[in-house]
């Protein structure tokens, strides 16, 4: 089970390198959770696959390295080093593609006026009338992380509350009551695979508040 994260567009500043951008997020990731999980206070994951596209490989070069990220020789190494620093001990797979995501019509133009045509952030809105954004850099990630515990555990608790006697048509379709209960217990076991302790304490606090 994985949770989906994305940054659309990736918050890369116009004229700045990828290390410059990532250095502004030393403790928090520059992407948002898309799956229906509640984000945890503790940011960690067990494994992840991350894809960054639309960032030129040569854009990270700087004569005098000011951080370990600036000392990396390629964009792939920059992203991999950043992931290992932010998620130590996690298995991280990263890929970098130079081709950006095109946003020409009929793609909806809901972007901020702070974006250039190539989807890079400006310090201030341009003085001229803003043109349509033609492409954007994007980062997407699939993570196996503790946030999945709250999702799976909540699903288990909701299903456990169902009065199966009221769903005769459901079981008449071929599902046996014993099979349903077995699948319910398997769901609970699956949720516990993503439990780290912190999530369990947090769930108990929520139950007490309810």
Provide key terms for this protein.
alpha+beta; 5-stranded mixed beta sheet; two-stranded antiparallel sheet; 31% helix; elongated
Give the helix/strand layout.
Blueprint: E1 3-7, H1 18-23, E2 32-33, E3 47-53, H2 75-86, E4 91-97, E5 101-102, E6 135-136, E7 138-144, H3 147-160, H4 168-172, H5 177-192, H6 198-209
Question: Could you explain the architecture of this structure?
Answer:
The protein has 210 residues and is α+β, with helices and mostly antiparallel strands. The chain folds into two domains: 143 residues, no CATH class; 47 residues. 31% of the residues lie in helices and 15% in strands. The protein is built from six helices and seven strands, in the order βαββαββββαααα. The protein has a five-stranded mixed sheet with strand order 2-1-7-3-4, with helices on one face. The longest helix has 16 residues. It is elongated and about 65 Å long. It starts with a strand and ends with a helix. The C terminus is likely disordered.
Q: Which percent range fits the helix content?
A: 25-40%
Number of helices: 6
Number of DSSP-assigned strands: 7
The radius of gyration computed from the alpha-carbon positions, rounded to a whole number of angstroms, is 22 Å
- Largest sheet, if any? 5 strands, mixed
Return the domain count.
2
Kindly estimate the percentage of residues that lie in beta strands according to DSSP.
15-25%
Global geometry = elongated
Strand order of the largest sheet: 2-1-7-3-4
Task: Write down the overall mean pLDDT.
Answer: 83
């Amino acid at each position: 089970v994985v949770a989906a994260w994305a940054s659309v567009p990736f918050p890369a500043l116009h004229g700045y390198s990828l290390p410059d951008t990532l250095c502004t997020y030393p403790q928090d990731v520059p992407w948002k959770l898309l799956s229906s999980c509640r984000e945890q206070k503790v940011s960690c994951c067990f494994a992840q696959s991350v894809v960054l596209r639309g960032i030129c490989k040569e854009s990270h070069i700087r004569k005098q390295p000011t951080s370990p990220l600036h000392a990396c020789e390629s964009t792939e190494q920059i992203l991999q080093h950043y992931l290992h620093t932010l998620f130590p001990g996690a298995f991280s797979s990263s890929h970098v593609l130079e081709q950006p995501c095109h946003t020409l019509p009929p793609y909806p133009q809901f972007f901020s006026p702070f974006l250039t045509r190539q989807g890079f952030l400006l310090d201030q809105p341009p003085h001229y009338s803003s043109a349509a954004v033609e492409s954007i850099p994007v980062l997407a990630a699939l993570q196996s992380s503790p946030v999945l515990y709250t999702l799976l555990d909540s699903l288990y608790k909701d299903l456990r509350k169902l009065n199966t006697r009221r769903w005769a048509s459901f079981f008449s379709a071929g599902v046996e009551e014993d099979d349903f209960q077995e699948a319910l217990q398997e769901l609970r076991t699956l949720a516990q695979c993503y439990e780290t302790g912190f999530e369990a304490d947090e769930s108990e606090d929520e139950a007490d508040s309810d």
